[in-house]
Design goal:
alpha/beta; seven-stranded parallel beta sheet; about 35% helix
Length: about 150
């Protein structure tokens, strides 16, 4: 089943990592669900650093998990998981924030948040992902009432 999908299209003035930190904080405040962020390895390092220093008076506890086996072997200590392994999304039932250029196929998430940066290649990949999810939802329309929301920031 496809979760509710939200696209956040960032203006050139918005910093991607800072926005993702705010999005994680908002998701944690609005829900008891865990959050998984799927991103490229170089973004994970930056995001990891930002989450520890996100706010002057607080931080967002998180854990980096890169292997599928580690998700079942390790004790998950934080409600936020950072990974570059798209395969981990399949059995995850929380909120997924996708920073990759690839749409996430079968996903057990309760919500899927797609963040689209302002660079031309990010916008092009965002369009492709939107079309992909449109097709997926059209094929599942008889059994699924999911929708796609778009927010321009």
């Amino acid at each position: 089943m496809t979760p509710h999908i939200s696209f956040y299209i960032l203006s050139p003035q918005k910093q991607l990592i800072a926005f993702v930190c705010q999005l994680i904080a908002t998701a944690l405040n609005k829900s008891q669900a865990a959050v998984m962020v799927v991103a490229a390895a170089n973004q994970l390092r930056t995001l990891d650093e930002q989450l520890w220093s996100f706010c002057d008076t607080a931080f967002i506890p998180h854990q980096i998990i890169l292997e599928s086996a580690a998700l079942t072997r390790q004790t998950i200590l934080a409600r936020v998981i950072l990974t570059d392994n798209v395969a981990l999304v399949g059995d995850f039932n929380g909120v997924v924030i996708n920073l990759t250029a690839t749409p996430l196929g079968s996903c057990g998430a309760c919500g899927l948040l797609e963040v689209v940066g302002s660079e031309p290649e990010q916008v092009a990949s965002g369009r492709e992902k939107y079309r992909y999810y449109q097709r997926e939802l059209a094929q599942q329309s008889a059994v699924n009432n999911s929708e796609i929301s778009v927010f321009r920031l």
